């Protein structure tokens, strides 16, 4: 039997379907598309990962994650587009 440190096995993803730890981007990811960022935000918000776990897993600073979260809250997934960051930040 595999033990998990997480009580929560799945959370609603950005598109509404349930996501699990296996559905999250690979920790070695180098290309962050909007969907992947939104999935990580959803995972942290839903309790699938803690902020600390997400930052360690993806080599993110808390400030970088907070930026993703803020842009997602204000503009949805489209706000997470790298090419649009300057347009959405004010």
Q: What amount of the residues lies in strands? A: under 5%
CATH architectural arrangement? Orthogonal Bundle
Query: Helix segment count?
Result: 4
CATH topology: Arc Repressor Mutant, subunit A
CATH class category name: Mainly Alpha
Shape: globular
Give the N-terminus to C-terminus distance in angstroms: 50 Å
For the biggest β-sheet, the strand order reads 1-2
* CATH homologous superfamily title: Winged helix-like DNA-binding domain superfamily/Winged helix DNA-binding domain
Quaternary form: single chain
Radius of gyration, in Å, reads 13 Å
Topology order in helix (H) and strand (E) letters: EEHHHH
Structure report:
It is a single chain. By secondary structure, the chain is mainly alpha-helical. It has a single domain (11-88), classed as Winged helix-like DNA-binding domain superfamily/Winged helix DNA-binding domain (Arc Repressor Mutant, subunit A, Orthogonal Bundle). The protein is built from 4 helices and 2 strands. Strand 1 and strand 2 (18-19) form a beta hairpin.
Properties at a glance:
90 residues; mainly alpha; Arc Repressor Mutant, subunit A; two-stranded antiparallel sheet; 2 strands
Structure summarized in a few sentences:
By secondary structure, the protein is mainly α. The chain is 43% helix and 4% strand. A two-stranded antiparallel ribbon has the order 1-2.
């Amino acid at each position: 039997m595999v033990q998990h440190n997480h009580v929560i096995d799945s959370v609603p993803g950005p598109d509404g379907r349930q996501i699990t730890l296996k559905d999250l981007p690979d920790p070695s990811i180098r290309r962050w598309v909007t969907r992947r960022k939104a999935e990580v935000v959803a995972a942290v918000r839903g309790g699938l990962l803690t902020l600390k776990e997400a930052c360690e897993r993806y080599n993110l600073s808390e400030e970088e994650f907070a930026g993703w979260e803020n842009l997602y809250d204000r503009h949805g997934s489209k706000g997470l587009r790298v090419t649009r960051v300057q347009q959405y930040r004010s």
